[in-house]
């Protein structure tokens, strides 16, 4: 008897929940049809927790309406980048629900809508970059990446646009994510000419390019091998960390460059200059000391620290000189540092070689 009672309670609970879901969908639809998109999305967001245990058909109706409401918000220019991403997520939830049920009512339209949204967002981001609106373009490229995290090239472009906008905090955050993902960019690049602008565009994948060609918006498809972007990424990171005053991380990424390209002269020079900059800070400390016994003790300690930094700079430059003996910039700076530490034998040997 107790078991039957629990079954009745369970059935009543889900009957009531189902009734509430349908009522909420109807209420949101009424607001949507009246053009009250923010009220509609408020209703749907408050009711979303009910939809997880709903029938697949109700889930499909819910997410289809949610996508339409979000599209309305985008068209009204209400947080467009954020709501574009949420629209794609709603369509993806819809497709998942219909796939689970095996009943496909809106999936084809949803897939076409996702494709159109991403194409429009990409074209808008490219236009922003050309107009030097790098922050706006970066935000849009990052949104495209969030809709499909397998297309890491979009994360790369988002980071690059933030770098161009001099938003180093955001750029570094995305570059660090690329590093964790072990992104290199090495592979194939897919291109096609946009019929409307007559300009060649880069696509995130061959499938995406082929769909655009098939749709008739693009012509002249081609592909080419793309080299690794690791050195470029680490160079940007080293520079931005230097600009932010984080010398340790700047040193870390210059060292990473040399692991990939041991004949990169700029990284040897940058590493040496980082140590020289540290030396300047110590020199400032020394110049502020007095003549007391305690200050003179600190002074002697700082002299050792300063000389160790110059020796570290020399070690970087000597490695660079061994790898690239004909690089004049490395040789000249190395000669200056040999002279600073009275390393006469090393100075003369290098001077004779160059």
Proportion of helical residues = over 70%
The overall pLDDT, averaged over residues, is 87
Total helix count?
Answer: 15
> How many strands in all?
3
Radius of gyration using CA atoms only = 30 Å
Structural class: mainly alpha
Distance between the termini: 99 Å
Q: Briefly, what is this?
A:
The protein is 76% helix and 6% strand. It has 354 residues and is mainly α. TPR repeats lie at residues 231-264.
What this model shows, in words?
The structure is a single chain. This protein is mainly alpha-helical. It folds into three domains: 1-183, no CATH class; 187-226; 262-352, no CATH class. It contains 15 helices and three strands. The protein has helices spanning 2-33, 37-51, 56-75, 80-101, 107-130, 134-147, 152-164, 168-180, 206-215, 230-243, 247-260, 265-287, 293-323, 328-340, 344-353; strands at residues 187-194, 199-203, 218-226. Strands 2-1-3 form a three-stranded antiparallel beta sheet, with helices on one face.
How is the secondary structure organized here?
Layout: H1 2-33, H2 37-51, H3 56-75, H4 80-101, H5 107-130, H6 134-147, H7 152-164, H8 168-180, E1 187-194, E2 199-203, H9 206-215, E3 218-226, H10 230-243, H11 247-260, H12 265-287, H13 293-323, H14 328-340, H15 344-353
Antiparallel strand pairs: 1-2, 1-3
Helix pairs in contact: 1-2, 1-3, 2-3, 3-4, 4-5, 4-6, 5-6, 6-7, 7-8, 10-11, 11-12, 12-13, 13-14, 14-15
């Amino acid at each position: 008897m107790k078991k039957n009672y629990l079954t009745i309670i369970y059935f009543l609970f889900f009957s009531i929940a189902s009734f509430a879901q349908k009522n909420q969908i109807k209420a949101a639809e009424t607001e949507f049809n009246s053009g009250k998109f923010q009220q509609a999305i408020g209703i749907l967001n408050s009711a979303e927790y009910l939809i997880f245990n709903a029938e697949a058909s109700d889930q499909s109706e819910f997410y289809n309406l949610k996508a339409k409401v979000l599209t309305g918000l985008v068209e009204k220019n209400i947080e467009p980048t954020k709501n574009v991403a949420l629209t794609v997520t709603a369509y993806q939830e819809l497709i998942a629900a219909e796939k689970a049920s095996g009943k496909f009512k809106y999936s084809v339209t949803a897939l076409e809508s996702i494709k159109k949204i991403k194409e429009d967002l990409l074209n808008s981001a490219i236009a922003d970059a050309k107009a030097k609106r790098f922050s706006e373009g970066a935000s849009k490229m990052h949104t495209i990446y969030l809709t499909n995290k397998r297309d890491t090239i979009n994360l790369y472009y988002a980071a690059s646009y933030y770098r161009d906008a001099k938003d180093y905090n955001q750029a570094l955050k995305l570059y660090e994510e690329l590093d964790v993902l072990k992104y290199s960019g090495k592979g194939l690049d897919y291109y096609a000419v946009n019929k409307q602008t007559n300009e060649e565009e880069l696509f995130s994948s061959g499938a995406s390019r082929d769909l655009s060609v098939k749709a008739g918006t693009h012509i002249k498809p081609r592909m080419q091998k793309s080299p690794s972007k690791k050195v470029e990424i680490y160079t940007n990171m080293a520079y931005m960390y230097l600009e932010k005053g984080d010398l340790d991380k700047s040193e870390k990424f210059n060292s990473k460059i040399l692991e990939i390209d041991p004949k990169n002269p700029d990284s040897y020079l940058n590493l040496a200059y980082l140590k020289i900059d540290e030396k300047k800070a110590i020199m400032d400390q020394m110049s502020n000391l007095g003549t007391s016994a305690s200050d003179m003790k600190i002074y002697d300690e700082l002299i050792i620290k300063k000389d160790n930094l110059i020796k570290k700079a020399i070690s970087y430059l000597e490695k660079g000189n061994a790898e690239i003996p004909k690089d004049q910039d490395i040789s000249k700076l190395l000669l200056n540092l040999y002279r600073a530490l009275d390393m006469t034998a090393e100075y003369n040997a290098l001077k004779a070689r160059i």
